[in-house]
Amino acid sequence: MGLAALAPWITAVLVEDASWRMIFVVQAAMSGAAILLVLVSYPRRLAASLAPWEVDVGGMDWVTVILLGTGALVLLHGLGDLRFYELANSPSVAITPIVGLVLVASVFVHQHRHPDPWLNPKLLLGRRYLVGLGFYTLYYFLNGLWGYVVPTTLQSGLGFTFQTTGKVLTITGLIGFTGLCAFTYAGTRLTGQRRYIALGYVMFAGAAWLLSERMMPGVSMAVLLPALTLQSLTTPFILALVAGLTYAEFSVEDFAHAYQFKNIVRQIATAGGTGVASLWLQYGEAMARTQLVARITPFDLPEGFDAATLVRWSALIDQQAQLIAVSNLFALLAMGCIGVALVAVAQRALR
After folding, report:
1. pLDDT at residue 57 above 80?
2. CA-to-CA distance for 351 and 347, rounded, in angstroms?
3. Is residue 43 part of a domain?
4. Residue 241 sits in a domain of what CATH number?
5. Residue range 80-94: average pLDDT?
6. 1 near 177, Cβ under 8 Å?
7. What is the spatial distance between Cα 315 and Cα 279, in angstroms, rounded to a whole number?
8. pLDDT band at 247 (very low <50, low <70, confident <90, very high)
9. Which of 59, 219, 276, 323 has a Cα-to-Cα distance from 89 of 20 to 30 A?
10. Exposed e or buried b for every residue in 316-351, given b needs 16+ CB within 10 A?
């Protein structure tokens, strides 16, 4: 998570001062460093007693590999491409993620019947795990939504540069990472975990509401920074705490099944949050733009109205429409987080 916090600033620096291609060079270098770490830290192999083709490593379940790989690829691409379409004009775009979901679901049907499943669905039906997975899904959905809307709004809606946006996102990410580290050492002393999960969502609601109230042209980063920082500090409560409670009843052997399924849900929820955010902004901006244009009458036009003035007004209307759509989205998000906080207090599975 610390490296993820550094990513926005590093990306901005590479794009602005070098080339966007350098991003892939850095990724290749980090992959090489990871390989080196594996070679240095992993135990050395024993002397082979059999030739590689004679070693019995178990049969690969190719049905699962093909169905899950294809389903995940189709689903994530379908959700990611939602921002390029309007469902009203292109209803067929919904078919792609549905096909992906069907393929992923077929994996669990196959695994349920498998004598030695890689992912055992029977172990995933515990009440504690399902409730924890629900909170996980909500967090990653909100994270995908937040991660799409905030940088987009900072740049195109409020006029901040790419480098400024990356720097601010890295600063707030490192603050959240610091809070997570502190929680790792102090979290075991907390009692009444449900209240702390609720506190995390109340903090998220507060951050969303603050941003909703501050979406206006010319706002400074100093005004926005408290809300962005508050949101980053929710991670220990609505992610780390939920993680510790969700897997409490799993044995070491069964933990892998639960964690692998969580990773599948994570990717789907994050992509879903990004897709929903992009669709909301499309419709929200279109509605706000229509209302703003309707308020302009011939009597509002100044003397000497020319093409340059029209271009300037059009850009101002586009900016206002985006800020209105984002403000409404954050307001709804705040109310939704308050509802989730109430559910966190009322539920009994995670405590």
Report:
1. no
2. 9
3. no
4. 1.20.1250.20
5. 65
6. yes
7. 21
8. confident
9. 323
10. ebbebbbbbbbbbbbbebbebbbebbebbeebebbe
